[in-house]
């Protein structure tokens, strides 16, 4: 077996390659599904904004289909929705995602997962990518989600975006400290 | 529980010991940014074994040649970086996006926040992208980046490096790393390179000089192969 290439930090200058800062739009006017806006932030262990984080999002479309050849389920793919986005935090450590609420993707034994966005986070000072998920406060199916069930009950709320208004959510990523976000080994 | 009609092939979990640690005290920016709670182990689901594979963004004709993105030629030593993206089972990863970004020959990034007192080069942006071919092969033409000082500790210098971003076939194969140059005396002083705990793993980030890759009379050649996570042998029911 070939040994893996190790990761290194993304450093502070990734914007040379991908200039999108502050806002990522994953949808077009024709994308099916409920439009949502997630207002995100990234903070460090001192509560300071992380102004040079790169946030990557991967998600299913409104029918729960992942735009990938290995999702062979007969669910409607949506040609206007790739399900991938990436954005830098802005000068206040914030980012905004304009997307749709994803449909249901099956879990490890075929049981449904609650709607979620998969998140990869890179930054100066992080040697590896951090992986987390964004769930939604107004989804009753969170209570049965097989991945949330892997997380200690008192930390699950760090994975749930707070509902601010219809279709508007807020999600704080805290890298360190008492309210530290749950990060996954997957 | 209802079962749907297909299985997924999970990705192998990376072996312990070779991956860099986020709590790398010599690299000062990690102090307030590394999580202190252990990572929570979760099973892989369709959400993770899929990922963006359909050529994120459009590629321009000069995206792979950083020396021809402007009217004039950039200053510096022209180099070719030639390599393959493979999985752990040595299978090529075709049609995947490989991106690079780097400082110019003077060690300055074309970025507003880079305050290093070295000249910008109006003919060098420092960003490139390409797709691997059917054999997992990629090739960039660029210039050798310069070393530059940074504020991590007294008299700190980053060794010349090229940042790499690779997607692979899945959210789980996503990799950000840095390619270094052989024989560089700065490597042994660099806390980012040193955050990789073993020498055998650090060596995987050092490109090899390859006369066969050179373009005679024009550019020196380096080989840099990238190995991403591979598949486990046992399928998982979904």
Structure description:
- The complex is a heterodimer of chains A (186) and B (238).
- Chain A is mostly beta strands and 186 residues long.
- Chain A has one domain: Protocatechuate 3,4-Dioxygenase, subunit A, CATH 2.60.130.
- Helices cover 0% and strands 32% of the residues of chain A.
- Chain A is built from no helices and 10 strands.
- Chain A has strands at residues 23-25, 35-43, 53-58, 84-88, 94-100, 117-123, 130-136, 160-165, 168-174, 184-185.
- Chain A has a 9-stranded mixed sheet with strand order 1-5-2-9-8-7-6-3-4, with no helix packed on it.
- In chain A, strand 6 and strand 7 form a beta hairpin.
- Chain A is globular and about 45 Å long.
- The mean pLDDT of chain A is 96.
- Chain B is mainly β and 238 residues long.
- Chain B has one domain (7-237): Protocatechuate 3,4-Dioxygenase, subunit A.
- Chain B contains 3 helices and 14 strands.
- In chain B, strands 3, 6, 11, 12 and 13 form a 5-stranded mixed sheet that branches. A 4-stranded antiparallel sheet of chain B has the order 5-4-9-10, with no helix packed on it. In chain B, strands 1-14 form a two-stranded antiparallel ribbon.
- Chain B is globular and about 55 Å long.
- The mean pLDDT of chain B is 94.
- Chains A and B meet through strand 6 and strand 10 of A and strand 2, helix 1, strand 4, strand 10 and helix 3 of B.
